[in-house]
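Hi there,

I know you've been waiting on this one. I reran it after we fixed the sequence typo, so this is the corrected version. Both the input and the resulting structure follow.
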Amino acid sequence: MTDQAKQAAIEARLERAAEALGDLTAPVIAEYYRRYPAARASFVHHAPHGPERLEAEMVGNTLYYVMTWFEAPIEARIYFDTSVPHHRVALDVPPDWFRGLIEALIDVIELGVPALDDAEQTAWDEMRAALVGLVERNRFV
């Protein structure tokens, strides 16, 4: 499967998710906080006058890199290579929280909108592994 075909598979499922689930922010954040309850205090601490805006921004950023992984992997690498270490050192945000948001977003989509075929799921699995891998490679930077 070419990267172009993988990109099409990602986009197709995202389109179905938009129709079936609507705005992903609330279900993704709910799942994220279920898995990482301590992260809620961090969002409030870093955005005391509007943590919901920061939550939406973080979900939006994650969705963007899910949407564009096969089109622009270099952009994602630059973002994660700078953002993960910065957040860990300057904001005391552990890499697991980055990974957790990626996993929560993908899991919400996958549970809400099953893959149409093995090829589509394989593209999603590859994209997940790549994005999570970018967090893991920056764990101790």
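Quick highlight: Residues 123 and 130 are 11 Å apart (CA to CA).

Best,
R. S.
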